[in-house]
Specification:
globular; 2 strands; 219 residues; mainly alpha; disordered C terminus
C-alpha cells in the first residue's frame, strides 16, 4: 500500500524533527515505492526505523553488527557472508557493502527485501505471515536452536503500537454527515396524483368461464 507523501513526511519528522524536509520527502517517496513492491504499510517501516535509529542514517550498533536506518545486520550481506570475521576483520568487499548500508535509500530498499524474506519464511514455517510475525523475524526473535519462529516479543508490539499512534494522529478520519441538533429535516416533494375518471365496475365472469389471473409487477 502507499500513503500520501505529506503524511509520511510528517511521520518521519515526528521521529527526527531536525531532518530537512527535502530529505524526509525523498525517504517518503522511496518508502512508497518499496512498500508497494513488497506489500506492506510504509508507516510500519517508519515505526521500525523510529525505534531503531530515530531516522539517523549513519548509526552503527555498538557491537558493530547492524548498520543504517533500519539497523540491517551486515554479516548476512552476500559480500560478508563468507568472511571469517565480518565484524572485526571484514574483507574489502564486505566493508564496501557495510558502507552502502549507511546510505538511507539503499538501507530502506534492503529493509524491504528482509521484510519479504521474513514473510515468506513465516508462511513456510507457520502457515501464516501476519505483520507481527514477519516483524518478529525482522527484529531477530527467531531461534532455530529452540525452534522458535515468527513469535512476537515486546519490541514487536511497541513498533505496532507506535504505528497505530501515527495513524491516529495523521490519517484523516472519514467524515460522517450528522444532522444539526434540533434541526427538522426538510420534507421531500409531495407526490402528485393525477385525477382519473371513475373506476369502472368490473363485470362478473360468465358462468363456467375461468377467472382472469392478475400478473404481478416486477420490481
Amino acid at each position: 500500500m502507499v500513503r500520501s507523501i505529506p503524511l509520511l513526511v510528517s511521520a518521519i519528522l515526528m521521529s527526527r524533527p531536525t531532518m530537512p524536509k527535502a530529505e524526509a520527502a525523498h525517504y517518503a517517496t522511496v518508502l512508497n515505492q518499496v512498500a508497494l513492491e513488497h506489500d506492506f504499510d510504509p508507516l510500519t517501516a517508519v515505526a521500525i526505523i523510529h525505534f531503531e535509529t530515530h531516522w539517523q542514517p549513519s548509526l552503527i550498533s555498538a557491537d558493530g553488527e547492524d548498520y543504517g536506518l533500519g539497523q540491517v545486520r551486515a554479516r548476512y550481506l552476500s559480500a560478508c557472508r563468507d568472511d571469517e570475521d565480518p565484524v572485526g576483520a571484514p574483507s574489502a568487499a564486505c566493508q564496501s557493502a557495510k558502507e552502502s548500508l549507511l546510505d538511507g535509500t539503499f538501507n530502506i530498499k534492503r529493509m524491504a527485501t528482509i521484510i519479504t524474506a521474513n514473510r515468506e519464511m513465516c508462511r513456510e514455517r507457520t502457515g501464516t505471515a501476519l505483520a507481527p510475525q514477519w516483524l518478529a523475524g525482522y527484529q531477530g526473535y527467531n531461534s532455530p536452536s529452540t525452534d522458535r519462529w515468527c513469535s512476537p516479543g515486546n519490541k514487536t508490539w511497541r513498533v505496532l503500537d507506535y504505528r497505530k499512534e501515527l495513524i491516529s494522529a495523521l490519517v484523516p478520519r472519514p467524515k460522517t454527515r450528522v444532522a444539526a441538533h434540533g434541526a427538522t429535516p426538510k420534507p421531500g416533494p409531495k407526490a402528485v396524483v393525477k385525477a382519473t375518471g371513475p373506476a369502472k365496475k368490473a363485470e362478473a365472469p360468465a358462468r363456467g368461464a375461468a377467472p382472469a389471473r392478475s400478473t404481478p409487477t416486477r420490481r
